[in-house]
Amino acid sequence: MDDQLANRIEVKDLTLSYGTDVVLDALSLPIPAGQITVLAGPNGCGKSTLLRAIRRLHAPNSGQVLLDAEDISGLNGKALGRRIGLLAQSPSAPQDMTVEELVRLGRYPHQAMLQPWSPKDDEAVSAAMAGTGVDSMRSRRIGSLSGGQLQRAWIAMVLAQDTDVICLDEPVNHLDMAHQLDCLELVTRLNRDQGRTIVLVLHDLNLAARYADQLVFVHNGRVRERGAPEVMMRADLIAEVFDVNAAIIMDPIHARPVCIPRSRA
């Protein structure tokens, strides 16, 4: 495979600011096709901003984001929405909207003036709700849902978008342990069975190490290091990036490294 196309997304020297505050500082990152890439790092390091930049929700000061070797700045909004789906942090919608109405919003990039709602749209919405376990509450108002139920409904909306690239910013936020596993196992199936490229932001370093093919530590607006979890989960690197002294042991069940925090570094 051509080296460029082996990376589904290529972030090149991206600098992005909010006012005078530089959030991403000449950041570069290849995101391999057909893998799960997990972004981890301390609060405020630029992880969520990077996801937004990949989905072109914030214009950079300089640099570029390539999708299949094509600069996303040349794509119109709906064309990009058919190729990259994003669930941002703390999304909002009218409280009286039903779960099904929310999930149907995911089909917006596929709609056109002369292209009415189709059986394919219904199939995508039904599959997304079934896959996230919200099909039984399709008629409920989202204002009546618990935090975990609502998060699953939002994930269903992104899945209904039916994109080859899925970006999820803290998708297990507000979920209990069982639903965290359900969510990340669903993401894994989308990757392994359907070949979708997944980019996740996760704060739980042990979940990141368990599910990532590529683990990326973002620090001070740059990529500090990236690689397989077995390479990345090092006590010295965790102390530098997260300011935590930790021991690293191997999970005997999943054969992935686990971080045991000891104290602030």
Q: Can you describe what's shown?
A:
This is Putative siderophore transport system ATP-binding protein YusV. Pfam families: ABC_tran. Helices cover 33% and strands 29% of the residues. It has 265 residues and is an alpha/beta fold. The strands form 3 sheets. The protein has a 6-stranded mixed β-sheet, with helices on both faces. Strands 2-1-4-5 form a 4-stranded antiparallel β-sheet. Helix 5 runs antiparallel to helix 6 (147-160). The longest helix has 18 residues, at 177-194. It is globular and about 55 Å long. The mean pLDDT is 93.
In brief, what are we looking at here?
The chain has helices at residues 3-6, 47-54, 77-81, 99-104, 119-132, 147-160, 177-194, 205-211, 229-232, 235-242, and strands spanning 7-18, 21-32, 36-40, 62-67, 70-71, 84-87, 165-169, 197-201, 214-219, 222-227, 244-250, 257-264. The protein has 10 helices and 12 strands. It has a 6-stranded mixed sheet, with helices on both faces. Strands 2-1-4-5 form a 4-stranded antiparallel sheet. Strands 11-12 form a two-stranded antiparallel sheet.
